[in-house]
Amino acid sequence: MKTILITGATSGIGLAAAQHIRQQGHRVLITGRRPERLEVALTALNGTDQDHKQQDTPAARGYCCDQTDVTAITQLSELLLAERYQLDALILNAGIFLPQAFESFTTTNLQQQLNSNLLGPLQTLYELLPVLNNPASVVLVSSIVADKAFANCTAYAASKAALEGAMGPLNLELASRGIRVNCLRPGITLTEIQSKAGMNEEALAQLTENMKSTLAGRILQPDDMVAALEYLALGGSSAVRGLKLQVDGGYCL
Predict the structure, then answer these.
(1) Are strands 61-64 and 27-32 parallel, antiparallel or unpaired?
(2) Which CATH class is domain 3-187+222-247?
(3) Which strand (E) or helix (H) includes residue 186?
(4) What is the phi/psi pair of residue 4, to 5°?
């Protein structure tokens, strides 16, 4: 049994990965920014108290942590150390998408996405180094926008491309600790990120319809990402470093 921490796992890809990995018999720890969302996610992962007693896998644990808050990340690391956790894998999934036309560019929009999508994951990794096992796997959740151009995504694409740019140096510097770093590039996936970005139901319906013309014939779902995340996070990819694993349903072909 391995111990895996997934950031931003109260919904979407993070929650789907947590459910899948826990079903494989591993111990799962998750983070989220809002206590009420964290509680709902833990209920989805663990079920009822009676369910806990019937399962061999330890109940999933949740920690309230905003990865743009350095103090909160430090406190998370201290808490995990106090609870004697040692992580076999860290999936840095938390992030935000705030689309903005470049002609309406604001430094606030850029800074928010850099703080969440670049500085947040790197700071989290740095603070959690003391609780990472030797060996351990780190997975950066990026996006196809790091390589595929979309309008109104300048700041978002820059933040994800910069995160991927850190992967090589991280592998070189952390190899002596037994830490390997890889990256998942999800394609257009239907999660809360679209509605949080301002898309209404009509826009979401149009996006879903448009994606029927892709090779996959549909918009991707969070569950489409879990096998790739399991591969990168656990032992099956023990010899893999610096991989950008793209799961896009053929969208970028």
Answers:
(1) parallel
(2) alpha beta
(3) strand 179-186
(4) -125, 135
Widest Cα–Cα separation across the chain: 57
List of residues 6+ apart from 134 with CB closer than 8 A: 177, 178, 179
pLDDT in tens, 231-244: 999 989 999 999 99
Q: Which two tokens stand for residue 129?
A: 């180094």
Q: How far apart are CA 119 and CA 142, in angstroms?
A: 13
Please, which residues bridge with residue 27 across strands? 3
Sheet of 179-186, strands arranged across: 61-64, 27-32, 3-6, 87-92, 132-141, 179-186, 244-247
User: Cα torsion for 147, 150, 152, 157, to the nearest 10°?
Assistant: -10
Q: Are 17 and 93 in contact (CB under 8 A)?
A: yes
Distance separating alpha carbons of residues 93 and 17, to the nearest angstrom: 10
State the DSSP code for 117.
I
Boundaries of every domain in the chain: 3-187+222-247
Q: What is the 3-state secondary structure (H, E, C) of 194-247?
A: HHHCCCCHHHHHHHHHHHHHCCCCCCECHHHHHHHHHHHHCHHHCCCCCCEEEE
Can you give the pTM of this predicted structure? Answer: 0.96
pLDDT tens-digit series, residues 4-24 = 999 999 999 999 999 999 999
CA–CA distance, 223 with 39 (Å, rounded to integer): 21
